[in-house]
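Hey, can you fold this?
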Amino acid sequence: MIQVGDTLPATTLMEYSEVEGEGCSIGPNAVDVSKATTGKTIALFALPGAFTPTCSAKHVPGYVQHFDDFKAAGVDEIWCVSVNDAFVMGAWARDQKTLAKVRMLADGSAEFSKATGLTLDLTSRGMGLRSNRYSMLVRDGKVASLNVEGPGKFEVSDAATLLAQAKI
């Protein structure tokens, strides 16, 4: 499992963005994790799935709500990563009203999740291999803090916990 001080894996995530106005879309577009984190501070949180109860009701809304606080703490971008395809993540972004606040990044084949060692096997629940629920503060591509949830928990990967770590 990835640890504090480790560099994020050189993988690619996918992003689907909508353009204001006529509803035209851009993407899906590849996001090279190494390039996208270079020289930036990223508040990254990951979760088992788009549109799932805890993820939709608590996890994403907390980061959207605290967007300005993260910016004030020196965070350049907030990323939400989930093992879903880019189209699902784009639809979830619309539903959660994350535009210009949280980048909704798809880890469709779980390559990023596998490379970090933070997978969650939900095959018995019909969901296959997913990402564990966690948050991390990333500075210039390196993990500065990491908060991994226990099974079925939502206690340490919330926006308030990561925000407190970003202020240090």
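Oh, and this one too while you're at it.
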Amino acid sequence: MSNEKQVDSGRRGLLVATCAAGGVVGVSTAGALVSTFQPSERAKAAGAPVEVDISDVAPGEMKVVEWRGKPVWILRRTPEMMATLEKDAGELADPASDKVFQLPMPEYAKNAFRSRAEHKEVLVTVGICSHLGCSPSSRLASGPQPNLPDNWPGGFLCPCHGSTFDLSARVFKNKPAPTNMDVPPYMYLSDNKLVIGKDEKGEA
């Protein structure tokens, strides 16, 4: 009898020790899995709104910043550049920006300038071609240039497959790119400071 009790208590001890060890492993494994599913600080930062000072962007110049790992162009257009935008309409595939690429078009940018009324000269767009995701080159000056028509009004040229976009990042007709480049949600914090990825409706 006493022998049997000793064996049972030995087994019980072994069972308790095994369960305890298993529990520790289980807890540590679960902890590793939980930490794997949590976004890193870099991932959080990549999706967060980005504040940009545009006081250093002169008329006719462009600044590039990063938001969600993509280039965002901020172009301060001159009056001469602005004058070309309404003339382009007949040559564009989607002049009113009705088609969606990756981001829904903000209501405040549904105009020929694709910008906010209070700063209509400033274009804010994600610099990614809607064809295969290349980043177009800026060809802001008007007139004849290599790989562009003689009556080029100024805009952007995708080096991958030749899609061309006007100074509002709208694609010209008969090009591989099916839609205009995206306008992200954005808002002004002051005349010279804006935030990309956030507007009155919240964050993107």
